[in-house]
Specification:
The chain is of the alpha/beta class. The chain is built from 20 helices and 20 strands.
Length: about 500
Amino acid sequence: MASPVKGPGASQLTTPSGTPVGVVHLVAEYLPYARTGGLADAVRSLTAWQAAIGLPTVVLLPLYRSAREQVPDLGPGALTFDIAVGPTTERVTLLPKPGPTDEPQVWFLDHPASFDRPGIYGEGADYADNARRFAIYCRGALAALPTIAPGPQVLHAHDWHTALAPVYLRTVLAADDYYQHLACVLSVHNAGYQGHFSQATLAELGLPAELWHWQKMEWYGQLNILKGGLVFSDAVATVSPTHAHELRTPAGGFGLHDAFIGLKDRLVGILNGINLHEWDPSTDPEIPARYSRDSLAGKAACKAALQRALGLTEDPALPLFGMTARLVKQKGLDILLESHFSHATDAQYVFLGEGEAGYANALSALALEAPDRVAAEFEFTEHREHQLMAGADLFLMPSLYEPCGLTQMRAQRYGAIPVARRVGGLADTIEDGVTGFLFDDYSAEALLVACRRAIAQFHDREGWSAFMREAMARDFSWGRSGGRYLDLYRRAVAMHHAGRRN
């Protein structure tokens, strides 16, 4: 059981009366237990920073099969709850993961019928019962909070999978004294995924019929779970200032731009950060040679080792582009393939990622066609990602949209210069012609122009070293961004106590 809020960081977050407040994160992905993209990395880094400053920090996520395999010794301290989800009652178990007191306290919610499955969200396609799976998770988490997080708390939900928590909080559980004292923040990491379901799902999840309204959860004849989270949260964050603006536009709001506009000052953009201890080429145990901004020699050794490992021509004079991403449309793979990059440039390319078979097949065909210049791996590992960061000269991020992105921050830290589209967090973290190369149009032609600019700069060896050093000097730590989250929590607490939500 968690202790009441205490610790040196607790004084940084209090109620209007001065009572210390802790933070509970609900998230569907969290490293190292479950990951499909940047969500798991971002939340782990944020919570680690919060715990390190002494802020009482709890993380609660589903006990997926992948998580159980990593922590098979869970059991001591388990808590069991019966929860109502629509017309049925479900039994869930909360299991704590033991850990140091200066790290986030992690709890897993066990409901085997929902989460003991091969995939997190599906296998090839989404699981048909995802609405119910994540409703069970949210109801179970809320039922556990009075026990595992007593005292005033900020509930920080992440993306649509947890957006039912603020909905239940302000409807079904609204009369309960404990829940009345919870302020609620929702982070939108990727608004392209919203949780669309049929109208009948409302009753199946045990939600009031009056939520079927265009100002609540109805969206063009569908139930929209993310929209419900926006409506019932005290404050909403997205993961970069530029993306906060994009979400308020018809082109960038994924059909929810009016809802984002309606949030007014309740919506803010806060850049994610990265863990500078984990992503540091001067100390990284995963790479073949260490190097730093002041001593770049090891970078060449890392490139040569990567070329050898992947069967590429071992040539320091050939620029090597890396790309690590989920193989989905969002990441710009359509314009990349349309550009015929392997024929249009004199460079090498390494791709690392998992995702849609069509993209994997297309990249595999290019690697077979030119094995000395193109390599592709589709079993993602963090070990290979570190090696790719260290070995690449340049990094591709031609994203259709990119709310924040962590890859470009890591790449700059490793002296791998990003070539990226000027959207979302990429626009906020890459300085064109100084720490990277940006382009605007979502087209193969625009991407090739940016790649050729980068290649021309690469062949100016003295200038390239200066370029690398400038990129490696940028600070993408959580210090500044974490402080902005504390400010947002303070605003959420104040707004909740003042009755300002809608």
